Amino acid sequence: MKIRVGHLYPEYLNIYADRGNIAVLAERARARGHELDVVPVGLGDRVPAGGIDLFYIGGGQDREQALVAPDLQAKSAALHDAAGEGAVVLGVCGGYQLLGRLYRDRSGADLPGVGLLPLETLAGDRRMIGDVLLECSWADETLAGFENHAGRTILDSGAEPLGRVIAGFGNDGASGFEGCRRGRVYGTYLHGPLLPRNPWFADLLLEEALMHATGETLELEPLADELEHRAHAVSAERARARGGRF
Length: 246
Ligand code: GLN
Prior knowledge:
The protein is of the alpha/beta class and 246 residues long. The protein has helices at residues 20-30, 62-84, 94-99, 199-214, 226-242; strands spanning 2-8, 35-41, 54-57, 88-92, 102-104, 110-112, 119-136, 141-155, 163-167, 177-178, 180-182, 185-188. The radius of gyration is 17 Å and the shape is globular. Glutamine binds next to helix 2 and strand 8.
């Protein structure tokens, strides 16, 4: 199968090599005989109608976020249509913030987000930096990664976090939540990039993208993942050694 990925603003939102997440998806798809077709969707580009199975939006600083936010607004309806039809959306850090309703940046300016996730983010004056470990009870798994953000993200009541913080700051350094998920839309502060050390999550996204592409339920064959599990263990250990929150 061909899995079509819409990579939003690859030229602006790619700190900490967030595009490495796409390389992981491509390799894991290839190992199962599928092919990832990555379509860059930049400023002024139309969102390809119908055919995108997974949208990806990476991290960036306030400056880049301000640059893309108005353009993202223009793409909002198309993204909502795609998500409504079961396309997967993954946002990391700056991209995650813009998947919410609003990001108020350090200068106090309000950047409207697309509202695919039920949350708002306010910039604070202390950065939250370091290794993070999350418990994702909904998947019976953990996620390990690295965070670096000043924004504090507040989920609406009843919103589902991506995980509970075992070690690190998470959304706001206080709630004990990290990230958000709604249907097949996921947002997280975890860079690192996220997917190389969390292969279960990469496969979940791939499965959902394939289900969107085929309209059928399916499960991917497991891969050996020895190196990936070691990377996860090292990262998890670093997060645990770092300890709790503020
Ligand atoms: N500007 C945002 C913040 O610092 C996002 C940073 C990022 O993507 N690393 O909160």
